[in-house]
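hi! just following up on the protien thing from before. the input was this:
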Amino acid sequence: MKFLANANALFIGLRETKSYHEALQVGPARHAKLLAARGLIRERIREEAKRIRSEDQFWDASFAIRARRTRPEVSPKFFTQGSVAYNLLVDPVLRIVQQLDLDDGMYVGVEYLQNGKPALVAQALFSLVEEALASLCKEQGWELDKSKETCVRVVLDAESHIDIPIYSAPADRMIAMDAVALNARADSVILKRAGHEYAKLPTDKIMLAHRNGDWDQSDPLALHEWVDRCVERYGELFRRGCRYFKGWRDFRWSNGRLTSITIMAAIAEALEHMNGAHRSLSDDQVVYEISQRLPDILEREILNPAFPGQQKVLNDWSANDRREIVRAAHALAERMTDALVNTGVAELVVDALRKAFGDRIPNRPDVIKIVPPVAAAVIAQAAVATPVPKVTASTSG
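and the predicted 3d structure came back as:
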């Protein structure tokens, strides 16, 4: 591909002005606020969870009849997941509508029944978390949202919230919930990190609680491991690419069906199609190459890469949604072509990119580099096409 323009500085690396990548980052103050709130939430839930062992309401009937001292201790452990954990968090365009989101999984170690379900009652755990956080929310001026089926949501302010999904894991394997083990648990059954040994958590035993009382198999750590493998395979450009296209999504729709995991899977597929060629390209060129492949990828079925072989479709959209999303992807591809291939005029490059990604693309035509021979040809062609008007001498009256 013959690129006429190099707009890489708009995407990454500017100093006096924020590049697009920097503009997508969440500021340190807002990030610190999320983490501080997470700490308070964890502390309050841990304190409230001390009563689980002794209260019958939390236990399946077969466990509730046991002497309380024979029931296992339940001490929740927490693991942040989602974009914050993957280092893929993007500052939303419409902060009040889209909101910053931190997912903090709460894991309880339990014994399992013969039917494969945990011995703890899912509905009771939801009630415990909500009771624990009700007073904290009142103290902090937060809002407790009880409407979500698979998590408890704490709305910190108009622009951010924390979700607490509840998971079960085998009690005798909860030692693996140490963060060091979680970050490396794919390495072997017994993981050695920092002088300790950790047993691997069995994926098929991690179950997600539903507000209606159900439990179903769900391992968010599998997706975390997939992201890590993508970074190993494609480099940090995988993360930057995901951020760029999440930024495009947020600019294009205030809300919609194109989820972050679908974008991540599509980026990975596009990079795989490039067969390593991305390593010799600048970020703007990689965005161009991905954009050209994106409509076809989104048109086809995209499976959840964290669960290969399970046919979990990510883009199971309605026909109307699919048409809208694919049409938007085609428009993005055309804008990228306009910016990098079809023009040698810096102002037009910036204009095309800002139409595609919004005004977080800096308005800096001065940093656009035009390929010199092409630039000269463009200028010469423009001079031929637009002759200098003939000026006739005159005198003022």
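The longest strand covers residues 100-110.
The chain has 15 helices and twelve strands.
cheers
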